[in-house]
Amino acid sequence: MRKYLLALALCAGPFLTNAQNAVADKQRAWIMYQADSLMQAKELIDKVTAQSPGNNQPDAWYYKGMIYNSINLNEMYHTDFPEIDLQTFEAMKTCLALDKRKEYSETIRGDIYQLAIGFVNKGVEHYDEGLNNDSKNDLKKAAFYFDKFAEAFEQLDGRKFTLLKVLKENQLDDNTIAFFSAVAKDRLGETEKAEQEYSKLVTKKYSDPQLYLQLRNLYMKRGQKDKALQVIAAGRERLPDLPELSMTYAEMLADAGRHQEALDVIKKAQKGNKNSPLLLVTSAVVYEKMQDFKAAEAQYELALKADEDDFNVNLSAGNYYLRKATRPATSKEEARKLYQAAQPYLEKAGRLEPRSRQALESLLDLYKKLENPKKAEQIQARLDRL
Fold this sequence. Notes:
This protein is mostly helical. The chain has helices spanning 2-34, 38-49, 58-72, 84-98, 105-133, 136-153, 159-169, 174-187, 191-203, 209-222, 225-238, 243-255, 259-270, 277-289, 293-306, 311-325, 332-352, 357-369, 373-385. The relative contact order is 0.04.
């Protein structure tokens, strides 16, 4: 028994020393922090939280969060510590988890509020860069920071409402950020995660038509046509006045051979948008699939009359004549006339949106068919620069 008690006493000795050292180092770290000696404070608090008992003490993680946040707020340290905001957040989350008495929670949540805004700013910046430059690296960073925002948002309690107000002033909200996150993951090929986030937003009745169009596209890529049709139908029910969803729904019905249903959808949508160029174009597409070319061309004429400077109308009209020229029954002479009919519309589309890959690819095809190598080379050069 005596040997056993002696062994316990010997084990307690180092623990007491570690505890005493943790207290002393915490105090010194806080003094250094208050003196703005942040690197010394960081070194001391890192030592405390790296081992027991400091790694289980809420005050140690509170000090670490405060010290790290001061480094985060000082731009002179950003080069040496590029992920200091993320490390600050992790320290603050640990403090909240350990702070059973709620001694530090109020202050910590105030700082997490600021970190959440920073995560949004970084996410949106990378998201815009990713979409504009087709940069997977930026999209990956965007998805990461949007996830961090969502994580931070859940820690805020009553401050959520204040943050939502700030986001609204910048034309954002938590659902829009979740949508951006889903789009980024979709573009990265993380389709299961994207589908989950899209579906949550559908359940929440998020009111951006792009949500339903993006989820529809995801299902179409997988060959899940029934699901794609269902999600567009749900979008039309949620947003009945938006022609984009009616157009897509009508096109999908036409692809399934349900032409009259497609035309009925368009006519219903036209009651509130009688001269909508895009609905007229969709009607033309349906008539083309029915091989009623006279009716299709009449619809294109109405669409151009409604808005002769609409990019999509010009591109669609030009592509219609390109497709018609390549039909098996079309003679060589008739095909050339159809290529010439397509030319003014496609050239105008190229002028309206000079960086549109879709328009440039159609123009390249056209000039090759017209045997105009000089023009084709010019278009290819523009495509290469995109």
